[in-house]
Amino acid sequence: MKLKMMMAAVAVACAGSAMATPLATSTPPGGSLGLLSPLPANFADVGLAGAFTDSFSFTVGSKSIVTGSLGALFGSVDISSVSFDGGAVTLTPISTGLGFYSSALTAGVHTLTVKGAFSGPFNAYQGSVYATAAPVPEPESLALALAGVGVTVSVMRRRSRA
User: Fold this and answer.
1) Strand order across the beta sheet in which 77-84 lies
2) Dihedral angle at the C-alpha atoms of 58, 28, 47, 102, nearest 10 degrees?
3) Residues with Cβ < 8 Å from 55, sequence gap 6 or more?
4) Among 20, 33, 51, 125, which is most buried by a count of CB atoms within 10 Å?
5) What phi and psi values does residue 150 have, to the nearest 5 degrees?
6) CB 85, CB 121: distance < 8 Å
7) How far apart, in whole angstroms, are the C-alpha atoms of residue 77 and residue 119?
8) pLDDT for 16
9) Strands 41-47, 64-74: pairing kind
10) Mean pLDDT, contiguous 10-residue spans, the chain (162 residues)
């Protein structure tokens, strides 16, 4: 047992020195990522073997699309789902782990939830999220769309009379 504890301490010390910067600047589970902007806000968790459900709160100042990514820093991490305010999002494999994004979130406080499992004795994952303003259609685009609907309706009426 003492050997396992000593090996664990050595592994954490080595991993800690190698990963000190990313983990030191990341928000732990239950924390607030603050007001999201186009600059990434980092979050992370470190744990032993077993399932986890981590929640992080954040705020968006206006209707925004929130984009993020996450991946294992060390150990064996299996991410099963990511959700915004309880609504699951699609996870997409990327070179550094998994990517995800929300449909437009309204201004206010929201919750990011990460679920998964750690398989090995010492594990960690890190992720980041950022917000960009949701696109707003330009008046010209709306006018063109309405004109198209109007032409379609008039053609349909003309055909039904003929």
Assistant:
1) 32-35, 50-60, 108-118, 77-84, 87-88
2) 20
3) 29, 30, 111, 112, 113, 114
4) 125
5) -60, -45
6) no
7) 6
8) 42
9) unpaired
10) 41 42 73 93 93 95 93 92 94 93 91 93 92 78 79 82 73
Strand, helix or coil for residue 82: strand
- The candidate with the shortest Cα–Cα distance to 37, out of 134, 106, 133, is 133
The domain 2-136 is classified under which CATH number: 3.40.1390.20, 2.40.160.20, 2.60.120.380, 3.40.50.280? 2.60.120.380
Domain segments of the chain: what residues? 2-136
Q: Exposed, middle or buried: residue 158 (CB in 10 Å: 0-12, 13-18, 19+)?
A: exposed
Q: Three-class SS of residue 161?
A: helix
Structure tokens at 87: 């609504």
- Block residue for tokens 């699309």: 65
Number of H helices, E strands in the chain: 2, 10
Q: Are 63 and 99 in contact (CB under 8 A)?
A: no
